[in-house]
Amino acid sequence: MKTNQLYQSMKGEATRKRVGRGSKTRTGYIFAAKHFTKVMQLQNIQCGRAGEVKNKHVRPYVDYCLENGLEVSTIRTTLSRIRGMCENVTITNKELGLDDVDYLGKHVAPSHDFIARCYDNIKDEGVKVLCTIQWYTGARNEELLLCVQSIDSWIVTLRLSGLIYMPHGTKGGKPRNIIIPHCFHEPLLNELWRAKEIMRLRGGYLLRGTNLDLSIKRYQDKMYRAGFKGVFSPHSLRSRFAQDLMADFERQGVPYKEAIALVSTSLGHGDGGDRCRWARNNYLIGWQGYGRHFHPKHHIKLLEKHYQRYGFIDEWAPR
Q: Which parts of this chain are annotated as the region Disordered (predicted)?
């Protein structure tokens, strides 16, 4: 009984303090509250309100998470949300032994040849178009499935300025302009016209689903079957876009700091210092440009892990 009271109390705090934030932020806080209260129940720790949770209750939770194989970065993120809901939780990550962690990404940008091979395995024409648009624009999955509402305006703005405006499905409801690499202007225009024709035949859809979540799941399933899995999941196409855009900026002579800020903004992460670091550590892994090689050891580590799990060799896999 008290566990349910604690969950409702933490959920109320999350809703109260996150008013005006994006739905994904609120969902993350509610998920953290649900997981925390579940672990508290398993350990028979009784707390009825968020204000009753103290530092001594957090240590067993962290131990449980570590024993069950959760990554340190995931635990740190969850603890940050718990602190936001429970005002008496003040214990730091360092005091919990969680200070030694990096926030490097878990995806590797697939090569153009790898994308082409997987593309040939896709049977659905709508998914083929979505795959190409995701590569050329760096859209997230939700943004991608909602792009049917913006295709007409994209055709116009891409011709005029080489930009597209992404208003639908963005994190936090924050629309943004996306810079398209010069080499993608004509191919993207062709794909957008192709998308319009498919939508005309399918009643306004590229991929049908009873709701957005189901459409995203269907898209991911079809991409997985085509070969986009592991470190090369559909999200890795955002890394491919980021690296292609950085290479385009380098060819134009754009300074590195300005280029990484523009890439970060195009991906939807903003141009602040921390945001640029996020883009660099997550989307440029293994890329060589501007006289730099970004996280080569982590790049090899991800590829080895992928190779061991999926057992197929491509041009990225270590020989």
A: 1-21
